[in-house]
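Note to self: user wants both folds in one dump. Writing first protein now.
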Amino acid sequence: MSEHSRPDSGYAGFEQGPIRPPSEAASLLLRVTRNCPWNRCSFCPVYKGEQFSLRPVDHVLRDIDSVHRYVTALRERMDLSGPIDYRQLSQLADGLSDGEQLALYAARAWLDDGMQSIFLQDANSLVIKPDELATILRHIRELFPEVERITSYARSQTIDRISAEQMGQLAEAGLNRIHIGMESGSDAVLEKVQKGCDRQMHIRAGQKVKAAGMELSEYVMPGLGGRALSREHALQTADALNRIDADFIRLRSLAIPNHTELFSEWQEGQFDKLGDREVAEEILLFLDSLGGIHSRVQSDHILNLFQEIEGHLPQDQPLMTGVIRRFLALPEEEQLVYQVGRRMGLFARLEDLQHGMRRRRAERAIEQYGVTPENVDQVIDELMKRFI
């Protein structure tokens, strides 16, 4: 069906949701569903108070048509008159509806980023019927055959209900990477934070994605078990991932924004939050416990203390664990400087402690705000909330 023959059916224009994985920064964001169908995780602030809904497939197809139309128009204009600056882009947007303007700007940004990948939003696009998702995927492939990767968030609970045959059909239609928020492989932790799935469900879902021929990115949340479940969280999560052999294991250290259920539990003494050093020790135990797999480990988020933890298993395991061992071996005062400098965005690696100008800025902040080894974790908690 062409864009001109699509019925209106209440279409309000191109949409984009609020979040995407850091690794999808260059992706075109296409909104398939709104918000999160589960929305009960005690640590997550993103969709609280928002109602989940499915966008009609026809609306998503029209979004794809809009982006294609603007990509085509922008390419033609650039072929004739060269690069388009943002003043000219604003002129092109003048008079368009809000949705059309959003589609135009999304097309321009995606064109600038190389048009290599598309991310389907919001929190769990696989919750729609598989044949409907396949229709969306095929339309993307028809209009943008050059796209290398189409990806989506998905919940293990949802994937567990989709048959292996249907997953294979989605892969054939063009879906080739899934992002799953495992968070933990411990049943005790998963139950405590109301994740809505258990360890075995995580394992089955991850194995099903891999069997379908898709890339799998699993997210782990160091610190989520608190002090009581820290060791179990590290060991059980590593064991679950050893059974899956995901393409990517991505670390997302726990931060607790004020308006979450977990924050209330923390304030009431029902959750004993780990400090930075304890989280470092938990990550070290986790990494040491990974084995027999070939995953790529990444610590690609501003919340993480160790951005430089990155590598392929098993060959880079000693390098990754060595980062944490070097940090834990530092004098307490040096750990303090690194913690504050990292959360201020000054440091990306331990070696940045030797960068004179950045180090002096971190030291001035420590002095200005009275940061000590005794209160540094409280200061870090407030700094981390800026990035959630």
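First done. Writing the second protein, which came from a different request thread.
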Amino acid sequence: EKKILFDVKGAGIIKRMWFSGSIAITPEQRRAVRIDMYWDGAKKPAVSAPIGDFFGIAHGLTSRFDNELFSSPEARSFNFTIPMPFRKSGLIEITNESSTEVQIWYDINYLIVDKIPDDALYFHAYWNRNPKTTLGVDYTILPKVYGNGRYLGTNIGVIGDSSYNGTWFGEGEVKIYLDGDDQTPTLVGTGTEDYIGSGYGQGQYASRYFGSPVSNAEFDVYAFYRYHIVDPVYFHQDCKVTIQQMGSQKTDVLRKIKSKGAKMTPVGFFGKNGNTSFQGRLLDEHKSLKLEDKEFPDTYVNYYRSDDVCATAYFYLDKPESNLPSLPSVELRLKDLNLKVWSKIK
């Protein structure tokens, strides 16, 4: 069933939302129930995402966290504070694509205004998931979107493939391509945990603009976010955002898991063996050097890997509709999610 929660004609600005009910406590519903938002009579939603992912946390999980845009103070509600202007109308609806009845309580607070400024932008959110990323291919957080706007940031979820035996996934660089940049990114990071303000691994934490509400090494499940509020990312033609699928681990560990069938492509090594320092790029400087070779340094190795990755991207755009794909099916949204295990993750 589909329910309209907000249907306002005229000009206005949504300022805050609060949601609770079974969607806040049921893992399946957090991923299967979808939320869609339409501005100014558009036929295509500007926002279309699983309701849990939209409110800042991936995988149908929940956790206590508080940041500049989203919060769940006791892990049983959703809060949202992002200005969302509309000139002619605003429409918000939810659709229950889960297998159980949904209960929902909500507040939507908004301003009624005479006119929205001509340069005000429309709020958008885009969600996608790849249950098994391709070796050496960056995961796309936000496909190339055309127009004038601002990239607000993303929340990302990673479920490590079991073949990697819980080894560290987070060396992938976030790359932001702006206004025609294609071969090389306009902005580029130094690793996943670095992009979200941490370093040398990724524990559980939450701060105003970056955090990781879920960092569970036992199940190799992570949910984290980065919002560009004080460091805005503007674009005037187009914007695309990706993240490398790259991990890091010691040479001997990688040899063992590779021998058991784990798919990987080593791309670089760094570190020390006694008093000797090693650093090199395998894909250009040392093309002939293989992980199995005796002369391969016993150091840390960065390597392409394949995991289950999802992301919600948030952005403003100068039009109420975008060129992006529609929300994937509920089958893909729920595929291989161990919802019974999720109840043990805090």
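Dump finished. Worth passing along: The first strand starts at residue 2 and ends at 9.
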